[in-house]
């Protein structure tokens, strides 16, 4: 989150203003804009909103990329946010179950494939966008516990007075696998709180939990917390976040156009700075 440098650039020398007038940063920003613009073309009739449902893991990258797509195509994109899984009222499966408008859905790949099996997403439309890792955070200014090794992680979880985890992919892994793997489920699960319809980092920032676990890309944007680091490699669970076209989409070609834009190599630098690994760069 966070699964996001420029691999395709266009020369800026065609502009009339002198080269010296551009800073290096401005030139790179222009090049990125041109490269992304080349990934889309305005359809003959660019009318009607495109409706997107995205889960938290890809939200930070999506929010930065969306305005460029709108400028390039003249289309307006409307967004609904929710968890990849679970029965919270604002989760993506719940939203689709209520037949909320959707053209593109972006969520954890296993959950996306489940929606394909349910007939909610077009089979074969799935595109892997990013790889996302799980990390921990504490309230800003609090001591940062050691999670650098599996043994250190176990000690930290056992010592923490309270732990918040998400109701989506990272939290499902935490409550069903990680604690069992570490052999501390009985001691730690009772003091762990599953967070619905809210970012784990927000809960930690206001002091309602001493330690928070979520996709790195979902922790980094939250003010009032300090990011500690990722889970040790031996127990890390990488989640692939993917996009697909909703079967109820009224604009399937526009939906595919947006997915291509989000998966373009030129989008990789923006994606990567949010804590995600863009699949287009692999």
Automatic annotation (TrEMBL):
Source taxon at top rank: Bacteria
Keyword Cell inner membrane: no
Pfam families for the chain: SBP_bac_11
UniProt keyword annotations, A-Z: Signal
Residues of the signal peptide: 1-37
UniProt-listed GO biological process terms: molybdate ion transport
Gene Ontology MF terms: molybdate ion binding
Keyword Signal: yes
Record protein name field: Molybdenum ABC transporter substrate-binding protein
Organism of provenance: Variovorax boronicumulans
């Amino acid at each position: 989150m966070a699964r996001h440098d420029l691999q395709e650039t266009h020369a800026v020398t065609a502009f009339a203003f002198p080269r010296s007038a551009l800073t290096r940063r401005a030139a790179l920003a222009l090049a990125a804009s041109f490269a992304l613009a080349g990934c889309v073309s305005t359809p003959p009739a660019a009318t009607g909103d495109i409706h997107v449902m995205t889960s938290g893991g890809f939200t930070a990258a999506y929010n930065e990329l969306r305005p460029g797509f709108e400028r390039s195509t003249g289309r307006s994109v409307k967004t609904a946010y929710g968890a990849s899984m679970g029965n919270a009222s604002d989760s993506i499966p719940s939203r689709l179950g209520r037949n909320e408008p959707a053209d593109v859905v972006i969520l954890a790949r296993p959950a996306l494939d489940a929606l394909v099996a349910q007939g909610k997403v077009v089979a074969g439309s799935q595109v892997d966008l990013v790889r996302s890792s799980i990390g921990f955070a504490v309230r800003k200014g609090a001591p940062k516990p050691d999670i650098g090794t599996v043994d250190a992680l176990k000690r930290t979880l056992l010592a923490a007075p309270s732990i918040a985890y998400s109701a989506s992919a990272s939290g499902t892994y935490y409550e069903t696998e990680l604690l069992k793997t570490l052999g501390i489920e009985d001691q730690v699960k009772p003091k762990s709180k599953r967070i619905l319809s809210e970012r784990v980092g927000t809960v930690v920032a206001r002091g309602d939990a001493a330690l928070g676990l979520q996709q790195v890309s979902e922790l980094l944007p939250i003010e009032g917390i300090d990011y500690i680091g990722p889970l040790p490699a031996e127990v890390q669970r990488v989640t692939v976040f993917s996009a697909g076209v909703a079967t109820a989409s009224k604009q399937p070609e526009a939906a595919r156009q947006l997915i291509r834009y989000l998966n373009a190599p030129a989008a990789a630098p923006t994606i990567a700075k949010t804590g995600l690994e863009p699949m287009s760069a692999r």
